[in-house]
Write a structure and sequence with these properties.
This protein is an alpha/beta fold. The protein has one domain (about 1-320): NAD(P)-binding Rossmann-like Domain (Rossmann fold, 3-Layer(aba) Sandwich). It is about 40% helix and about 10% strand. The protein contains eleven helices and eight strands. The chain has helices spanning about 10-15, 35-45, 60-70, 85-100, 125-145, 185-190, 195-220, 240-245, 260-265, 265-275, 305-320; strands at about 25-30, 50-55, 75-80, 105-110, 150-155, 225-230, 285, 295. The longest helix has 26 residues, at about 195-220. The N and C termini lie far apart (about 45 Å). The model is unreliable at about 240-245 (pLDDT under 50).
Length: about 325
């Protein structure tokens, strides 16, 4: 299906918002396919050295080979990083700290969607640990390297699923497998029920993280690190394939007829990573919601709501430790 969708916006985004990335180091989670793969490829074309953070698998090995073939002469380094395992994330952090002095951009791209109510080995909800807690851990531990950049960027990936109710502390606790169950078939086919609420909590968290971090950096007088956020609209990637396989949605849903290509889905995080005019707190995504050019969006009030910020920050720090700024 993805090969049949015309890419409309990637070229314009690169031409209009893609600065030279020579001598810059960009770390990206979830680059085996979809938006992360496209982002890795495009920043490498602009000269960046790219750290690929993925769980070790045949897919990640094949993605590395494909990237090397797509951008001959570019520098890619694959670093094992299983976001569903805090020990693996900490090992990846240790490797990066031992081998790099500066990180110019950390792109917290990876995510899973509407999976069954299950726990990771660390006890947390699979979606929350993958999409949020491990990215918070990566960000706080790599922050000293990002702060050494002349213009460090922390790019978070949200989605339209951010829209909905407020954050709730129980989703940040080690209660994986006890957070509402798997929902009915009818709920899942209509993007409702507990699976989709857990997903909503993670996507709202990714956006709240951006504005909570922006405010903390401003209070600390740190002006050379910019938190930014993007959403992809609806892009046809393996995210939906995995969800459908797990029973979270209908793989033939008419909804997917509105999807744009993975390349266009990636344009928001690409703009956040490379736009020379970017400012702290910028939010990029299609103004039409599901598809379109990644314009500068106005963040909803709930993204900086004090209650949401407190639930997010306290929940993350309880899970993975204090983020000292």
């Amino acid at each position: 299906m993805t090969n049949q969708i015309e890419t409309k916006h990637l070229g314009d985004v690169i031409n209009n918002h893609g600065q030279d990335m020579s001598n810059k180091v960009v770390a990206i989670t979830g680059t085996t396919s979809g938006t992360g793969f496209v982002c890795a490829r495009e920043v490498a074309k602009k000269g960046a050295k790219v750290i690929l953070l993925n769980r070790e698998s045949e897919r990640s090995a094949n993605a590395l080979k494909q990237l090397q073939e797509a951008v001959p002469g570019a520098t890619f380094e694959a670093v094992a990083c299983d976001l569903q395992n805090f020990e693996s994330v900490n090992n990846a952090i240790a490797h990066i700290k031992a081998n790099y002095e500066v990180i110019d951009a950390l792109v917290n791209n990876a995510g899973v969607m509407a999976l069954k109510d299950g726990a990771t080995g660390d006890g947390y909800d699979v979606q929350m640990q993958t999409n949020v807690l491990s990215h918070f851990l990566l960000t706080k531990e790599l922050f000293p390297l990002i702060q050494k950049s002349s213009e460090g960027r922390i790019v978070n990936h949200s989605s339209m699923a951010r829209l909905g109710g407020p954050l709730a502390s129980e989703y940040f606790e080690a209660k994986g497998g006890d957070l509402g169950g798997d929902g009915t078939e009818e709920e899942n086919q209509n993007f409702q029920g507990p699976r989709w609420e857990r997903y909503h909590q993670t996507k709202l968290s990714n956006a709240v993280f951006t504005y909570a971090l922006r405010d903390r950096l401003e209070k600390a007088g740190i002006s050379n690190v910019m938190p930014l956020v993007a959403h992809p609209g609806l892009a046809a990637t393996n995210l939906q394939v995995t969800t459908a396989h797990d029973g979270g949605m209908d793989s033939n849903a008419e909804f997917m007829n509105m999807a744009q290509s993975p390349e266009d889905g990636a344009t928001g995080i690409i703009r956040a990573t490379m736009d020379p005019e970017a400012k702290s707190g910028n939010f990029y995504g299609p103004t039409a919601g599901w598809s379109g050019y990644p314009d500068l969006l106005t963040p909803e009030d709930m993204l900086s709501d004090a209650a949401n910020v407190n639930v997010f920050w306290e929940g993350c720090e309880k899970a993975v430790g204090a983020f000292a700024i």
